[in-house]
Amino acid sequence: MSFSSEAPPALRTVTISYAQLQDKNADLSAKIEEGFGPNGLGILSITDVPGYCSARQTLLHLSPRLASLPEEVKKEIEDPHSRYNFGWSHGKEKLESGKPDMLKGSFYANPILDIPTTEESLIYRYPSYCGQNIWPSHALPELEVAFKALGKLILEVGLMVAYHCDRYDETADSSSYPYLEFFDVSKEMKMHEDKSLEPILLRSRCHKGRLLYYFPMQQSNCSQDGDSMSSWCGWHTDHGSLTGLTCGMFLRNTVEMPCSDGAAGLYIKTRTGQIVKVVYGEDEIAYQIGETTEIMSRGHLCATPHCVRAPRGDEAFGLERSTFALFMQPDWDEKLNFPDVVHIHKELIPAGGSLTFGEYTEKLLDKYYHLKM
Ligand SMILES: O=C(O)CCC(=O)C(=O)O
Ligand SMILES: [Fe+2]
């Protein structure tokens, strides 16, 4: 990691090349440790992924077009039953202050499955995952193809990251149990496999993509929230297992351009509480750890707190930002056991400490969105 001359400090992510990642025998534990380990930033990025740059460009240019569709067209692709977790969502999520988030618009879809299930009871129980994708087929037909192409690519690479995280986790586990060879190792390994990240993500029907459009800051907001790190997107940790993120694209009137304010963009809180801006290339896919991985790894891999800062100054007027996140997460049926050592959303966990991932998500949505429709 190296410091740039920008203040506040900007740190470069740890990078792994696609070629290294593809090698199942490569020992990437040092890089995984550096990125995701106890002293890491909680983010790392993958370089040289074939086909990635054009898939990113194509999709990110569509978010301002989607956001500028007439209100009645956007309303047609809203889904209140899933609490806006499919289709268009603007002003539905509550901010820390309790006010609706008007600063960004999102479009959510499962890039792998258009119809995850047809079972009515499941759709009723887990609407945010078991509902169906809603594409703007007439107003913006290109969106479906571009969204699925980028989402599938980020998942494919993310599964490779997960494979190497599992190998890292195994190494770390055996070093913390130096007498493992005296135990029944086959039993230990079996228990381990149940919580391995790659197979959990591989069998999931819950992956969710989010195309984000950050509206240009109004000048009044600029001065009001100007000093805040989290002026575009509040501090949070992602709920899923692993999030794939594109580097944000800045535009003005739908034309791509560099951001005039070097301090704008993604910020992360490090394990030691330091706040840093993180930078990675437009041609890299970044991955960060979500809460579910912290829970399933019993705190071994920690979730990454992050936020987004809006650009400031006169030149920032009219600047909009487009980006894409893929939330890779367990299936709705996957059982989560909440270890005592992890202190995430304790108030939502029943005595006994176990919920399905789908149940856990609905409880969280009760907290951050309006109650069920
Ligand atoms: O806009 C970004 O770069 C991050 C978005 C994000 O954190 C999220 O959608 O959870
Ligand atoms: Fe996030």
Describe the protein in words.
There is one protein chain. With 373 residues, the protein is an alpha+beta fold. 32% of the residues lie in helices and 21% in strands. The protein is built from 13 helices and 17 strands. The chain has helices at residues 18-22, 29-36, 52-60, 62-67, 71-76, 120-125, 127-130, 142-176, 185-194, 197-202, 219-225, 291-296, 357-368; strands at residues 10-12, 14-17, 43-47, 87-90, 104-109, 208-214, 233-236, 242-245, 249-252, 255-256, 265-269, 275-279, 285-289, 306-309, 319-328, 335-337, 354-356. Strands 2, 3, 4, 5, 6, 8, 9, 10, 13 and 15 form a ten-stranded mixed sheet that branches. Strands 1-12-11-14-7 form a five-stranded mixed sheet, with no helix packed on it. Strands 16-17 form a two-stranded antiparallel sheet. A hairpin with a 5-residue loop joins strand 11 and strand 12 (275-279). Helix 2 packs across helix 8 (142-176) and helix 3 (52-60) crosses helix 8. The longest helix is centred in the middle third of the chain and has 35 residues, at 142-176. The protein is globular, with a radius of gyration of 20 Å. It starts with 9 loop residues before the first strand and ends in a 5-residue tail after the last helix. The model is unreliable at 1-6, 174-191 and 222-226 (pLDDT under 50). The chain binds 2-oxoglutaric acid and fe (ii) ion. Fe (ii) ion binds next to loops. Keywords: Iron, Metal-binding, Oxidoreductase. Belongs to the iron/ascorbate-dependent oxidoreductase family. This is Fe2OG dioxygenase domain-containing protein. Residues 213-330 form the Fe2OG dioxygenase domain. GO terms for molecular function: metal ion binding; oxidoreductase activity.
